[in-house]
Amino acid sequence: MEITDEKIFKIALFTSLIGLVGMIIFSSYVEVKEVSIGDIDRSMIDEKVSITGIIDSIETSSSGKSVFISLNDGKNKISIMIFESVLAEFEDAGVDLNSYLNHKVKIYGTVTEYKSTMEIILDNSNSIKLDA
């Protein structure tokens, strides 16, 4: 049996299609890791996480293009960063961030480090939900 370029192409195409279908099917089973604020460290940078806590404060940056939220889980605090593009999503959805102040929320975002301090960056306007 002779292996030709055409056979190699068909095998590669078939393998790629199977991989793509598998990714689509199993992507719904991927879950964001739920952690407590105290467990967040440098080893988690660039990971997507879910945290729960009460929003203590909401402050707008001096430029007005970003917002800093302080989230407290009763033991630890972390800063949540919301950039201009995500703020525009909140505005478009008619959501006032101040309505979350002093409420328990669940936040989904990406762990980052800024000036040796761990923080979470909100990915989109669906990344913050009131928690019962």
UniProtKB/TrEMBL annotation:
It holds the Pfam family tRNA_anti-codon. Residues 49-123 form the OB domain. SUPFAM superfamilies: Nucleic acid-binding proteins (SSF50249). Keywords: Membrane, Transmembrane, Transmembrane helix. It comes from the Archaea. The chain crosses the membrane at residues 12-30. The keyword Cell membrane does not apply. One of its GO terms (molecular function) is nucleic acid binding. The keyword Membrane applies. InterPro entries: NA-bd_OB-fold, NA-bd_OB_tRNA. This is OB-fold nucleic acid binding domain protein. It comes from Methanobrevibacter curvatus. The lineage of its organism: Archaea, Methanobacteriati, Methanobacteriota, Methanomada group, Methanobacteria.
